[in-house]
Design a protein that fits this description.
Layout (H helix, E strand, L loop, with lengths): L9 H12 L3 H30 L1 H12 L1 H12 L3 H30 L3 E2 L2 H28 L4 H28 L32 H33 L3 H13 L1 H12 L3 H29 L10 H17 L4 E2 L1 H21 L3
Antiparallel strand pairs: 1-2
Helix pairs in contact: 1-2, 2-3, 2-8, 2-10, 3-11, 4-5, 4-8, 4-9, 4-11, 5-9, 5-10, 5-11, 5-12, 5-13, 6-7, 6-11, 6-12, 7-11, 10-11, 12-13
Length: 364
Amino acid sequence: MKYLNWLLVFVPITLAAKFGLHLSDGPLFILCCLGIIPLAGVLGDATEQISFYTGPKIGGFLNATMGNVPELLISGFAVKAGLYSLVLASLAGSILGNILLVMGMSIIIGGLKYKFLPFNKNITQNNFTLLSFAIFSISIPFAFKLVNGGDSPALSTFSLTLAVIMVSLYILGLVFSLITHRDIFTDEPPRKNIFKDTDVESELEEEKPEWSFNKSLTVMIGCTVLVAVMSEILVSTVEGAAEQLGLGEAFIGIILIPILGNVAEHASSVMMAYKGKLNISIEIAIGSSMQIAVFVTPLIVILSAVLGNTMEYVYTPMELLGIIISIMVAGVVFSDNKVNWFEGAQLTAAYVILSGAFLMFGID
């Protein structure tokens, strides 16, 4: 991701444009987008380096977690500004982007080098189990609002209760996968190079970290702080930029913000798949979607309650349909113990179709 580092120049440019030149929202929004992209990339580099010291399971979890920091911060500032529809749209877009686009591209790139990419089925089953629970959970408040119509104090209360339950379940999931049953998530099956009749393990040299643990941790913390600042600027310019640039909420929420936030996951996941390490790639991409669905979104609902106005945990019909379809399609692709590049192409095509639908028909 080093080729993105030259974009870091837009971080100080954005800060100068905001606090010194006082540019209008449209140009400032563009500058902010250009600044967040390399920060997300460097954040991914730092977490990748840390993974050398923590191991693949924790490393993949940490990469997915820190890769979601931009979405979490952008959503947090959007909640503070009362932009609830933008929050849910961006989080729905992140789920779609990670499951379909990031995972699809990773499988394509890895599948062009290896005829088949085996994976630990326990990893995918654990993630898809939680994603299935997420579908169940978000369908209940949607059905409640569909039947009763309009806003309801009971719906706000139920949304908060549901968010607390989902965060608790996510924590229990971490205990399950990282502590009590961590042994079932560690085995790595052999992979055959598509060009040679050899196992990948015989071709790869042992990788070593390029940064020390302290340097990696410092860079990760520093990037997180800068992403927080840039996220606040981004959110403050969204409405003005949408008007000045002619961008609809569908494009900004479902596509643009998730792509900005997924830069780190996308690059890391593709790179790991290219190296034949699909288990880590799955932890980054699918694990990230699971984390957004079961942890980040509920956490945002809890944050809104703390701020005094609980956000209703209700997606629009099209957002809900997109989430359900993406999880179902990905579940079919990962139904056996291996994937190939054509299955990755199907995931990517599904993302293109859904994105086109959001652009053409909106999100209401």
